[in-house]
Amino acid sequence: MVLVLALGDLHIPHRAPDLPAKFKSMLVPGKIQHVICTGNLCIKEVHEYLKTVCPDLHITRGEYDEDSRYPDTKTLTIGQFKLGVCHGHQVIPWGDLDSLAMLQRQLDVDILVTGHTHQFTAYKHEAGVVINPGSATGAFSSITYDVNPSFVLMDIDGLRVVVYVYELIDGEVKVDKIDFKKTTTPTNLPH
Amino acid sequence: MMISNGIEDEEKWLAEGIAGIQHNAFYLHRALDSNNLREALKYSAQLLSELRTSRLSPHKYYELCKVLHMRAFDELRRLEIFFKEEDRHGCPVIDLYELVQHAGNILPRLYLLCTVGSVYIKSKEAPAKDILRDLVEMCRAVQHPVRGLFLRSYLAQVSRDKLPDIGSEYEGEGDTVMDAVEFVLQNFTEMNKLWVRMQHQGPHREKEKLEKERNELRDLVGKNLHVLSQIEGIDLEMYRDTVLPSVLEQIVNCKDELAQYYLMDCIIQVFPDEYHLQTLETLLSACPQLQPTVDLKTVLSQLMERLSNYASLNPELLPEFLQVEAFSKLSNAIGKVMEAQVDMPVVGAISLYVSLLTFTLRVHPDRLDYVDQVLGACVKILSGKPKLEDSKATKQVVALLSAPLDKYDDIVTALTLSNYPRVMDHLDAGTNKVMAMVIIRSIMKNKSWVSTSDKVEVLFELIKGLIKDLEGISTDELDEEDFNEEQNSVACLMHMLYNDEPEEMLKIICTVWKHVMSGGPKRLPFTVPSLVFSALKLVRRLQGQDGDVGGEEVPATPKKIFQLLNQIIETLSVVPAPELALRLYLQCAEAANDCDLEPVAYDFFTQSFVLYEEEVADSKAQVTAIHLIIGTLQRVNVFGVENRDTLTHKATGYSAKLLKKPDQCRAVYACSHLFWVDDQDGIKDGERVLLCLKRSLRIANAAQQMTNVTRGSSGPVTLFVEILNKYLYFFEKGNPQITASVIQGLIELIKTEMQSDNAVVNPVSDAFFTSTLRYIQFQKEKGGAMGEKYDSIKLGG
To answer: Which residues cross the membrane (chain A) (predicted)?
Structure first.
């Protein structure tokens, strides 16, 4: 059982002052093995905070990030899964699942974690799963109205990943979960 | 040489004294063992004579006395036991009392008398009060300060458990608590006089040493007050009418700084808080009568702290505090102290008021007028003086200003104290900023909302040290990390300024802008984004509402806010921060689109394009910027054909002119989405889409050829695969211009490229192509309409 935290689009301090207190109390150091951040932190204090939650931190660049050295995309392997990360402002149309599926094929990953829309989604398609953890602070978005703070926790166990989404609605944390199973890779098509 | 000899000598005499005691103690023991009264008296008198020594200089004497004293007391205890056991010596106590008065020298005589007296009282053969009175009077015979102190201390010790207190066995006809009180008071008074007199004992140059020694003996005097506090028979009335006035009289009259300070402190520590509250006036009225050098501020602070704790632990007693008018009494007392001690350093004065403020916040938290009063008093102290330089004093002022913040969870309460900003004005620029950060932190921690423009005004005045350059500090001198932290705090703070009412919210935004606009190029990149998003949130709230209500002008309309936003973002040009401004303009453009304001949206796009053309030079920045432009433009639907054409044409133009060919290629195929929006009334121009895709294909080809030329091998087919995916996208959406054969052609093209002579094996692009083909296969196998579409595309071979 490997726990992976996925979050992003915090937009601190431009659009939000801090993570919700209820989220902060849940993100206890030592419990999570990997952190994936889609970008738009935006300042280094947030980076440092995330490092305290878990030192294995993977961040991609959002268009408002103070640190321009974060990469545009990142791939990593956790257990049996290949994960890809990209903020998503580079994929047009924004939030378009088919276009994101193309990126997923390009990165050749089972799970693509992306952000920018501040809207939680978990979408299964032919090449794998696209997960958008939303905005961890509920930051304003031109794309999504009425953003609730949310983040995702993935529990990777063998060929199975359970995606838990935590959403702060009216002051209460609501949890939902989705199961994904990875099929074994099919043989290459002749060409 | 002489001095060291002196010390050596004294050590020798000290040793001799101890030896003398031990010698006599040995014989005393023997006498006691054989119940020989006469011998016991003789040797005990000799033993006690060691305390008579005058061979030592005064400052050494006390040391000697202390050592001998402790040893001698052991022996006296044994003696007391002996005296008590009449059967051992056959002498009735009343006779003993006579007998010991024949001892040759006065000091041993009185020690023995006290010892016997103690036994006498215990025997109850005479009223306790008579014996006590006798003893306390007789001790007057010893006027030597140190010896007298120790003697009386011994008296206090042996009499302690024999006072006619209520419920004690020594209480009876004519023996009352009052007698006990009088005895202790008298002993206390005499001891204090002796103690005060000590300072005149030695040569003037040794004054410091004398003071040190005096300090070490102070507990002997203070013990009496402790004894008084333990007498159960003393009730509030007796304390108020007899005990306190007598003690205070002695304190005032002795006119000794050391004694006064110590004893005032003693009173406060030793007697119950309840008494202090009820005798507050009396206690405080003694203060101005004390020597001017007495550290009254510490005394008063102690008092206030005790009363504060008392109030905290017993909240039900708060009405009593009001009843005795504790606040005004304390406040007046402090005022008098300030008047009397004109030279009190600022740090002392402020710390005194910090204590008063703490008291006020604990006891009268609802009385904001009291709190403001205290702050006002501090303003007076600070006025007329130059800005504080003393770091201790500034720490005190910060403590003063932080206290209300800690107490009142709602920062707004503190903001209403009229003297609060006035105190802050007296801080130097650096401390002002420290305090401003304290205020912001308090707001963020307590999550207190500031909800009117008036309060925002006050708040931003208070934190002005962070908002702009105050005199004395220029931005260049600041540590970068500290500066960033400050500005980020201000940015976060803006999210706590909120009102449900759009009118008021707009006023808040305007107030903030008014303060923040003069922050200068270093601060604007931090403050502008926060403010812009605050404003955009307001716009969104107003979106649903109509601007004109029945023809009346409504102050808060999206249009007005967009005008303000324009002004705000424009100021970023002084930084300069073109990339940030570009992003913000695009945000506004999208918001204007959502409000159906075509000209406003167009204007914002224009501004962002101008920045792109003129200010964004870095190629990497250009790529991001162009994607943001295309992404935003793709989403807006407010434009008429002409405007839309102008903007899309420009965007496509920029895309084709990016520096690197791959970037060009990607930007151009991204532009294809500008001509196909998947909404029901979205634009769907299949031809223009195809044009874009073909153009990007040409660029990809050119890139491939260039790589052939420059590197001798062809580059990866990644771009082609990306474009293929885009073709598939529009194919599925039903763009009639994109047919199965077009797709087939592209697939073949890629295969050819991959198999060509100078092809370099690239696993990444290979995998990409493979998964794309797999996708096609998947769609074919779907069946239904999709399967039909894909049917004619052949993958095999």
So the answer is: none
Structure tokens at B630: 């295309």
Instruction: Give the mean model confidence (pLDDT) for residues B465-482.
Output: 78
What is the rounded distance in angstroms from the CA atom of residue A116 to the CA atom of residue A40?
8
Give the pLDDT band of residue A162 (cuts 50, 70, 90): very high
**Can you tell me the distance from the alpha carbon of A3 to that of A25, in angstroms, rounded to the nearest whole number?**
17
Spatial CB neighbours of B177, under 8 Å, sequence gap ≥ 6: B164, B165, B166, B171, B231, B233, B234, B238
Predicted confidence at residue B548, as pLDDT, reads: 52
Which residues does residue B676 pair with via DSSP β-bridges, in sequence order? B684
Q: Which residues of B702-736 are buried (b: 16+ CB within 10 A; e: fewer)?
A: ebbeebeeeeeebbbbbbbbbbbbbbbbbbeeebe
Q: How many CB atoms lie within 10 A of CB B745?
A: 12
- Record: contact B529-A14, CB cut-off 8 A: yes
**Number of domains into which chain A is organized:** 1
How many angstroms separate the CA atoms of A19 and A22, rounded?
Answer: 8
State the residue for tokens 């054909």: B641
| Whole-Å CA distances, B259 to B213, B253, B287, B487, B566 | 13, 11, 13, 53, 72
Predicted pLDDT of residue A189: 39
Distance from CA of A159 to the nearest CA of B (A): 20
Confidence class for position B297, pLDDT limits 50, 70, 90: confident
Note whether residue A147 is domain-resident. Answer: yes
Contacts of B678 in chain A (CB under 8 A): 93
Domain residues for the domain of A75 are 2-181
* Residues B673, A92: C-beta atoms closer than 8 Å: yes
Q: Under a CB-based contact definition with an 8 Å cutoff, are residues B161 and B211 in contact?
A: no
- Closest listed residue to residue B62, CA positions, set B216, B189, B191, B187: B216
* Residue in the structure block whose two tokens are 């702050």: B375
Helix (H, G, I), strand (E, B) or coil at A121: strand
**Looking at beta carbons, which residues of chain B come within 8 Å of A14?**
491, 529-530, 533
Cα distance between residue A84 and residue A114, in whole Å: 8
Question: pLDDT tens, B60-85?
Answer: 666 666 776 777 777 778 888 888 88
Of B479, B465, B569, the residue nearest B525 (C-alpha): B569
Concatenated DSSP letters of B743-754: HHHHHHHHHHHH
Q: What share of chain A is helix, strand, coil (3-state, %, to 5)?
A: 15, 35, 50
Residue A190 domain flag: no
Give mean pLDDT, residues B713-733. 91
* Residue A110 within any structural domain of the chain: yes
Q: What is the three-class DSSP state of A123? A: strand
> Tell me, what CATH number does A147's domain have?
3.60.21.10
Q: Is residue A188 part of a domain?
A: no
pTM for the structure as a whole:
0.82
Count of CB atoms within 10 A of residue B516's CB? Answer: 23
**How far apart are alpha carbons A176 and A152 in whole angstroms?**
10
* Residue B474 pLDDT exceeds 70: no
User: pLDDT-derived band of residue B37, with 50, 70 and 90 as boundaries?
Assistant: confident
Rounded to a whole number of angstroms, the distance from the CA of A187 to the nearest CA of chain B is 10
Selecting from A13, A63, A106 the residue whose C-beta is nearest the C-beta of B491 gives A13
Separation CA A144–CA A113 (nearest Å): 18
CA–CA min distance B709, chain A (Å): 26
pLDDT at B253 > cutoff 70? yes
Which residue, B431, B444, B368, is CA-closest to B399?
B431
DSSP B265-302: HHHHHHS-HHHHHHTHHHHHHHGGGS-TTS-HHHHHHH
